[in-house]
Design a protein that fits this description.
It is a single chain. The protein is of the alpha+beta class. It folds into 3 domains: 62 residues, no CATH class; 130 residues, Penicillin-binding protein 2a (Domain 2); 339 residues, DD-peptidase/beta-lactamase superfamily (Beta-lactamase, 3-Layer(aba) Sandwich). Helices cover 42% and strands 17% of the residues. It has 21 helices and 18 strands. Strands 1, 2, 3, 4 and 7 form a 5-stranded mixed sheet that branches. It has a 5-stranded antiparallel sheet with strand order 9-8-18-17-16, with helices on both faces. It has a two-stranded antiparallel sheet with strand order 5-6. Strand 11 and strand 12 form a beta hairpin. Helix 2 packs parallel to helix 4, helix 3 packs across helix 4 and helix 11 packs antiparallel against helix 19. It is elongated and about 125 Å long. The N terminus and C terminus are likely disordered.
């Protein structure tokens, strides 16, 4: 007993105190022996020790029981919730998943007839977590054997550095199976969504494209960023007509070695743009593969001095204002002077011309005289009402304001009368021309099907009917005879504008355009075709003006598009009656119903 007590490092009072507080949980053997001997010699101490142990054991049991109850409750709650979601209500489970997916979804874009222009496709991406890979070289080489397009050396370096690597953004089912069969640690598959454009470059400048993390960055794709409808975004373009226009415009651009080209077709009754092409173009599935210049929408964003097409605006304004008639004459035998400017004709008739002939033969001299009679203020008022003073409020972000002269006096009025001194986008010209031929109502263009903008009257119906007759003579006897399209009697105006340079105009660079409408007797569609810097050919006798290049392209577009659009040809007698009578409202429908009349040869 004394030997044991000598081995104890602490006094007996400490042991007794520890027992009372229930702290002596794990003790050395010597303590236990000494304690048991002490208890034998002191019954009171033994009773107190037993009571402390009992209280300690009770508290321990209570803690264990409380923990067990809490954990049981938590796990039971989670189990019930999981069972409820999985089996209790299928609709709740469906809503749960679709809500999570909806945040990343973008609306589908379709053409006016339902053809898909842009849609989301589910994809499986291949990723590698570098920290979980056992052997970087083995993993990289194994993946390289399955996916031949990856850089094995670069992939190995990234994996060896412990990086998280996206090897491929999308895998085919066969590639996914092949990678899965490798059984490599750290290799993972991730669900992704990819924006896909099934039409490729067709309609690219209208549809636009998206960038990861930014959404749509141009065209209707940018419009879809804020699209609130539950259904798809329905574009106004028709992919069938879009293909026709692109084919013909591309062929003309190549034939005349043009720097660029653009074209558009607009419904003159609704303002809907059913086709718009800007060349060169790009594939929205790989926008970065094309130069930035190819992604520029020349038809809605670029500004040009578009030349003699403005003569149609000037003539219509003079007729509508009552300062001239179809037969009013103008002396075009010599240059016309305005202040210090001398205005001449490109190929002058050198005779007295009627207002109709001024437009028919595209006389700068004659139209400058008409503009002088009209005056700057009235000229500005008409052009403003045709939307030529402001940026077009279209759905595409690729839009631009017009460029007006710093001052607008007699000289500016004369030159603007034939399209020099004012820069507008091609779509400005097309929408203004539509108002000239559709009965006199201006309606802004739109790229959304069924979204018909409100109209505003600019010219009276008689003025519009007169202009249709005048513009028909441009095709039959004037500068645009190659614009003829059999049985559709198109109307229109050529426009060849020299490009402005510092200090004047470059006579060797030009934009050749034809703006017209079909069927001419009761217009339904207006068309603009432009070639940027076309080159002369031997077959065009050295000319590169619009009558030799843009007008023939217009003719082919009309002949191919009209049947697709449901416009049946009519005989010459029926068309002539409509041109002479000037009837517009309802005349197109009536003529289409009687299109089976035998044609006049």
């Amino acid at each position: 007993m004394r030997l044991l007590w000598r081995r104890l490092p602490m006094p007996t009072s400490w042991i007794s105190s520890a027992l009372r507080r229930g702290r002596a949980r794990t003790r050395p053997v010597a303590y236990v022996v000494a304690e048991s001997e002490m208890c034998e010699e002191s019954p009171a101490l033994q009773v107190r020790a037993n009571r402390g142990q009992s209280r300690h054991m009770m508290r321990s049991r209570m803690r264990v029981m409380m923990c067990a109850v809490v954990f049981s409750f938590v796990f039971a709650s989670l189990g019930l919730r999981l069972a409820y979601i999985s089996f209790g209500d299928a609709h709740i489970a469906e809503r749960y998943h679709t809500t999570k997916l909806a945040d990343a979804e973008r609306p589908e874009i379709i053409d006016r007839n339902g053809a898909i222009l842009a849609t989301d496709l589910p994809m499986i991406a291949l990723e590698v977590a570098g920290r979980d890979v056992w052997d970087a070289k083995e993993t990289a080489e194994a993946l390289g054997n399955v996916l031949s397009d990856i850089d094995v050396t670069t992939l190995e370096e990234k994996i060896a550095g412990g990086r998280y690597v996206e090897v491929r953004a999308d895998l085919t089912p066969a590639e996914r199976k092949a990678v899965f069969d490798l059984g490599l640690p750290g290799v993972r598959f991730a669900a992704r969504t990819k924006r896909f454009y099934p039409q490729g470059a067709l309609g690219a400048h209208v549809v636009g494209h998206e960038e990861p993390g930014k959404g749509g960055v141009m065209g209707l794709e940018k419009t879809s960023n804020t699209w609130r409808s539950d259904g798809p975004l329905r574009a106004s373009i028709d992919v069938r007509i879009q293909q026709i226009v692109e084919d013909e415009l591309s062929a003309s651009m190549e034939k005349f070695s043009a720097k660029a080209a653009w074209a558009a077709i607009m419904d003159v009754e609704t303002g809907e743009v059913i086709s718009l092409v800007s060349l060169p173009d790009f594939d929205p599935n790989a926008p970065g593969a094309a130069p930035a210049d190819s992604r520029r929408n020349r038809a809605t964003y670029d500004r040009y001095e578009l030349g003699s097409a403005f003569k149609a605006f000037t003539a219509a304004a003079a007729l509508d204002a009552g300062i001239a008639e179809e037969t009013t004459t103008y002396d075009a035998r010599k240059p016309f002077r305005v202040a210090d400017r001398r205005i001449t004709d490109f190929h002058g008739e050198n005779r007295v011309l009627s207002l109709s002939e001024v437009v028919q033969y595209s006389s700068n001299i004659g139209i400058a005289q008409i503009a002088t009679d009209l005056g700057p203020e009235k000229q500005k008022a008409y052009l403003k009402s045709l939307g030529l003073f402001d940026a077009l409020p279209i759905e595409l972000n690729e839009n631009r304001n017009v460029e007006l002269p710093y001052q607008w006096g007699p000289v500016e009025a004369a030159t603007i009368a034939y399209g020099h001194g004012i820069s507008v986008t091609p779509l400005h010209l097309l929408s203004g021309f539509s108002a000239v031929v559709n009965g006199g109502e201006y309606r802004r263009p739109t790229f959304l099907a069924g979204e018909i903008p409100p109209s505003a009257r600019v010219f009276n119906e008689e003025t519009s009917a007169t202009m249709r007759r005048i513009l028909r003579r441009v095709v039959t006897d004037g500068t645009a005879q190659y614009a003829e399209a059999a049985d559709y009697f198109p109307i229109g105006k050529t426009a060849t504008a020299d490009k402005p340079v510092a200090g004047g105009y470059d006579r060797n660079t030009r934009i050749a355009s034809f703006v017209g409408a079909f069927p001419g007797y009761a217009p339904k569609y207006a068309v603009l075709v432009s070639l940027d810097e076309p080159q002369p050919l031997p077959e065009t006798y050295g000319y590169a003006t619009a009558g030799w290049n843009a007008a023939p392209a217009f003719s082919r577009i009309v002949e191919r598009s009209a049947p697709v659009l449901g416009l049946r040809p009519v005989n010459e007698a029926a068309a002539l009656q409509a041109f002479v009578s000037g009837y517009y409202e309802g005349s197109r429908e009536a003529l289409l119903q009687h299109s089976s009349i035998e044609r006049v040869q």
